[in-house]
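Re: that chain you flagged

S.,

Sorry for the slow reply, it's been a week of failed gels. I finally had a moment to sit down with the sequence you sent. For the record, here it is as I used it:
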Amino acid sequence: MRIRPMQASDCEDVVAFTDREIGAGYYSLDEVQTIFQRSSKNGRMCTLLLENDKEQIKGIRISYPPGRWEQGKGLGLEPAKWPHDFTATAYFQSLFLSGDLQGQGWGGKLSTAAITILKETGAKGIVCHSWKESPNNSSTRYLQKLGFAVVAEHKDYWRDVNYNCTRCLKPPCRCTAVEMYLDLERGGNP
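Prediction finished late last night. Pasting the structure tokens below so you have them in one place:
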């Protein structure tokens, strides 16, 4: 397995991967192309892929550097509760792993690699939305291990995203997002 920066030529494969792993229609090709364009700053690509030795995508950490994003995928953001403003805050939009790799530490490895790159782009903090209903709340727990702290909860966060959630099975998604923040200047929790 290897971690590498996303390339423009990966967009169609990313859509196929996310359709398979998180539910059909979560990302369109246009959205993934926009993700690719917004994921870089100062020559650094912040969205990373995990691939196997056959060059098949097995995971993705979508990350936006400061100044390259405006909101998350769903509804809810509490910037007044952050230690740094939008201009200094990066965004972890999504982390997805192939089911056969979950629980093996690859999510943490992808995220740690992205954190290093985001620091190089000038980020003072990173905000994200974790999936509260993930199995055993693993989404929130892994982010807490990285030093993220809970800021707020947003019920029905993804309700306006027209996709087939793997938990809800059909639109609208009624899952809860836990907004979390990592203060990079303080080395951990805000």
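What I noticed first: The beta strands are 2-5, 40-41, 44-45, 48-51, 57-64, 89-97, 125-131, 149-154, 177-183.

Talk soon,
D.
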